């Protein structure tokens, strides 16, 4: 029984560290990201650290289990025909491997909720607000605080032949208000390390809203991450992160009547998407075949 107690205490001390590891600050380099992108927003670091801590915890549990399996194979291998001593139960060990998984799950759950609450925090007065409208099978981006030459807010709408470009400023708090015209879609920019399902009929300012501050300029692909129908895979868009001055100039150009392409060219940016290209849909193929046959 003493041997079982020592083994139980050793297992408890070795694996209990898993619970606390997810709360430690993790180094930010390619190795410790375990395949995740680096992230370009102010909230990416929190999610990356949760991912790193979870992977390390899983590896510790895995190595501990593999070690115990190996130990059992070596120490309890057959040594003869004599039946070894049979143990009906080991109460301390059973208590450890009953309670310890609960503690691990509780620890991971706790840190997940903490990070989720931090990521979903909203400011009282964001610097910018963007309305994102998802529909089968593309995106519309509306800048509600603007007014074009027709008096309506400036917007960009994608089509089967054009990737919609969402222009965002860096170093400003941006609130995204998401809505769906039909089914559940999901707004996902991999470099944000974040995605949010867009649930139809849920435009209540609570569940379909999030905020980020983009910290790096560049062009980043965006996708729909929820299977939403036949052409789900074609719902790509691009985030074009520019400086605050270029963003203001872009909106000013749009308000003067320029379209997305012209306004981007006006601020020295490529007028078309560079991170992704339109897919040739079956509808376009059928039209082309019909035109060729005619």
UniProtKB/TrEMBL annotation:
Record domain Cytochrome oxidase subunit II copper A binding: where: 125-253
Compositionally skewed regions (Polar residues) per UniProt: 271-294
EC number(s) from the headed UniProt entry: 7.1.1.9
GO biological process, any: ATP synthesis coupled electron transport
Segments of this protein annotated with the region Disordered: 269-294
Record's keyword terms, sorted: Copper, Electron transport, Membrane, Metal-binding, Respiratory chain, Translocase, Transmembrane, Transmembrane helix, Transport
Identification of the protein by name: cytochrome-c oxidase
